[in-house]
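Incident review: delayed structure delivery

Summary: a single-chain prediction request sat in the queue longer than the usual turnaround. Root cause was a stuck worker, restarted by the on-call engineer. No data loss occurred. The affected request and its eventual output are reproduced below so the record is complete for anyone auditing the incident later.

Affected input:
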Amino acid sequence: MRDRRIVVVGGGPAGIAAGLEAALAGAQVTIVEEREDLGGQYYKQLPSGWIAETRSWLDRQYDEGRELIEQLRRLGVEILTGTLVWSLFEDHTLGLTDGTAVWQFPYAKLILATGAGELPVALPGWTLPGVLTGGGAQSLATGQGVLVGRRILLAGVGPFQLRVAAQLIEAGAGIVAILDAANTWTTARSAARVLVYWKQFRQALNYFAVVRRAGVKIFRAHLPTRILGDDRVERVVASRVDDQWRPLPGTEVEFDVDAVCLTFGFVPSVELARLAGCRLDYRPDAGGWFVWHGATQATSVPDVFVAGEAGGVEGAAVALEEGRLAGLEAAWQLGVVEERRYRMRRGEIEQALTRARRPARILRSLTAIRPGLFELITDDTIVCRCEDVRAGEVLAAANRWEPGLRGVKLWTRAGMGMCQSRMCGHIISGLIARTKGIPIDSISLDTPRPPVKPVPLAAMAAPRDGGGAALGAWHERKA
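Output delivered after worker restart:
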């Protein structure tokens, strides 16, 4: 089993595509997904037993995802949902848990399609109840039928917040305004360059049409500078900003709201890749640190591939083609694909990938984070929500230790909470870089350790199917 199995970690567009391509090539495939359903944020499926009462053009991604998932099942792909990969071991073995037990799972080839998380943004008041990411609000509205508020302010950059706004409007929410950090000229220039890619441009136009019909005003070159309220969000103070997103004096405007959605892009999820020893590279317009890969999606570690946002944030269209390429290459290396078919199929995928990357790179330049965003943080602003650590404490630790996440973590406990620095790591790195005047990619990361996400102690105490060996290897590695 170990000699032939391809394991795909992640059930979003890249993971689904990788599993399909490898299975079509004749490989034995298992997809491991932490959520209860495949689809990820892009192909988000309704919870089991739910039926949508109304249909709209916004449901097309749901339908497309459902068809792809059904194809996986028809091909006999093993799907492990509600299952977390909490560690990797040197003998081509994963540590898995479903929350009730831990066990080992072997692989011959591993495809990391772990996706990305939304970029957290710290500013005064961002920890008040009612402040969340755009994707979080989207998930509640489309997946659970829950609105985060009736008077919602969206703030961020890029077309994703138009999609969030459109879905919230169709779900019945009232959008007070949309603040976009990009100025009118930058937005128009990017739109003109994307115009030739009609599918992507039409999609953005559909979102914009919903927003326009609802009478929502878009404030270009504006950012929130303070979020105010007692027990929850009540008001937002915003300002016009320059090209580097620094507030311009005398331009403040206030909004009465009951919820704020911050949408500033995505950060690649690289925890498993770091644990595996994969090389990382840094590029701001790719979301920060991402997993380096070659032309066939192979990483620097033998038998480990990456596909989708973990290898650089470029959108679902790119993720699909990267997944297909990784699945095909993994199957080829296992020897289950006839060479003629491999050469022909690889050429088709590479052409599609080239086409998909062109508009994605144009939009990436629009959404790259500017330094003024970190300058909104005051010394009293909480930057690590799990451990209640404030910016002033972080800067004091950075001055005492080397300017890296490890020293800050040891001195302040920032990054030791449930999120294990997924939320605060980027914020703290940006804060240190701005204050010390050094490149953000020169700031050392903290040490990757298993479990990559919290695992219940009850599960650790109930090993099965080789889980005891997994625990032994984990303890040995920690030692």
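Verification: The mean pLDDT is 88.
Action items: add queue-age alerting; document worker restart procedure.
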